[in-house]
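[User] At your convenience, examine this fold.
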Amino acid sequence: MSDSSGYRNVILSLAFLVTFSVHLLMFSYGPLVSSIISEMSLNFTQASLIFSISIIAITVIRIPWGICCDHIGFKKSLGIGLFIMGIFGFLRSFSGSFIELLIYQLFLGVGVSVVIPAMPHMVSNWFPKEKIGNATGIYVAGFAFGNMIGLALTPFLLSLFGGWREVFRAYGIFEIVLTIVWWALVKEYPNSSIRSQKEEKNSSLPFRDNFFMILKQKETWILSGLIFICMGCFDSLSLWLPSILESKGFPLITAGIIASLLALGFLITSPVSGTLADRFPRKRIMLILGLLSGPAIFLIGLDFSISIWVAPFLAGFFLMGIMTIAFMIPVDHPKLSPYVASAAAIISSLGNLGSFILPVMVGYTRDLTGSFFVALLLLAIMGEITVLLALALKESNENGKRN
C-alpha cells in the first residue's frame, strides 16, 4: 500500500489534520481571551504575552527540531511533537494563574515548533517535483482551516460548555487522539529505494558547515523577512480581530464568524497559490499579493460595514498566499533542498519572531492609544514591505527553476 500513489493521499490527509490541529490549539485562544482577561484580571499586554510565549518556544526550539527531523525523519519527530501539543494543550484548562497558563503555552509551543520543519521533509520524501506546489498548498491549507474553525467554532463551544477551560480540554483531547492515529498510520518513505537514498544522505550531514551555508544564502534572509511580516500580521489579526470587532459593537459570536473569514482567505489561497506557483513565476505572484495586502489590512480599521466583512478575507488571502509560496522555495532551491528541514527550521524560526513581536505591538499600542486603528495602520505598512522583499528574490520559471 505504501508504494501506491493512493497512500500519498493518506499521508497528505494526515498532514492536513496535523496543521489544522496546530492552529486550532493556537488560535482558539483569540475568542477566549476576553473571558481569560476577565477571570485572571489581565491587561492587554499580558494577554498578548500568553499567546506570544508560544512563539518564543517555536523560535528557539524549531532549529533543533529541524536537525532532528533531517536525521530521524518526519514521522518520529512529528509524533513526539503531537504528543507534547496534546498534553500541554489539555493542561491549559487547569491553569490557576497567569504564570501557569504562560508555562503551559510555552510548552505547547515546543510541540508546535516541529511542524514547519517536518512538513517540507514530508513533501520531499513523498512527492515528485512537479507536485511540490500542490502538496504544499494542501498542508498549508490545514493551518488556515484550523484558524477558521478555531475562530468560528470556539465562541459556540464557549457558550455551550460555559467556560474557556472546557474548550481547551476538548481541543487537547482531540490532539491526543490525532497523535495515536499518526503513530499508527504514517510511514516515513514510499519505498525502500528512496529510504536508502535519504538515509545515506542524512547519515553524512556535516550540520555545522550546512548551518552556516544556509545562513549565507540571500534567500534565507529574504524568505525569513517575508514570513516575519506575513505570519506576524496574520497572527496579530487572528488574535485581536475578535476584540477589535467587539470594540465596534459586534457580539462575540458574530465577531468570531467575521474573524474566521481571515482564515477562510488563508484556506482558499493555500492550494490556489501553490498551484499557480507550479505553473507561473513565483516572484511575480508574490509581488501582486504583497501590493494588495497593505490596503486589505487597512480596510479592517474602517467603519464601513462592507469592508468589515470583506477585508479580513482579502487580508488572509494575500498574506498567506505569499507565505505558501515562500515555503515552496527551499524544497527545490539548489543549495537549500538537500537539507530542507533544517533550512525550513531556520527560515521559519527567524520569521516567527514576527508572530511574537507584532501581536505584542498591537496589544501595547492598544493600551497606549486606547484604539486599535494605529496598530492596524502599522500592520498595513508592514504588508507593503513584502513587495520590497519579493523584488530582491531571483525570478523563477513555471517549474520552480531559477533564472
User: Anything to note?
Assistant: Confidence is low (pLDDT under 50) at residues 397-403. The longest helix spans residues 132-161. The CA atoms of residues 10 and 186 lie 8 Å apart.
